[in-house]
Design a protein that fits this description.
Elements (H helix, E strand, L loop, with lengths): L2 H12 L15 H34 L5
Amino acid sequence: MPPSTLNTWVKAYKAGKLGDVGINHKPLSEVELALARTKRELAEVKMERDLLKKAAAYFAKESLPDTR
């Protein structure tokens, strides 16, 4: 969460207008929701890929003779 979001909420709370935060935001369309889900999934898959690369490199190094 960006610090600016939290700052906005704190200012609104102190002013007694916390219920008004986000009123002007339009609801997301189905396409926007699908795009957000796809971006989250892509980020997760990239992290998993990077972890598997590191694990493969580690085990490849361990399997070489004279590296232990």
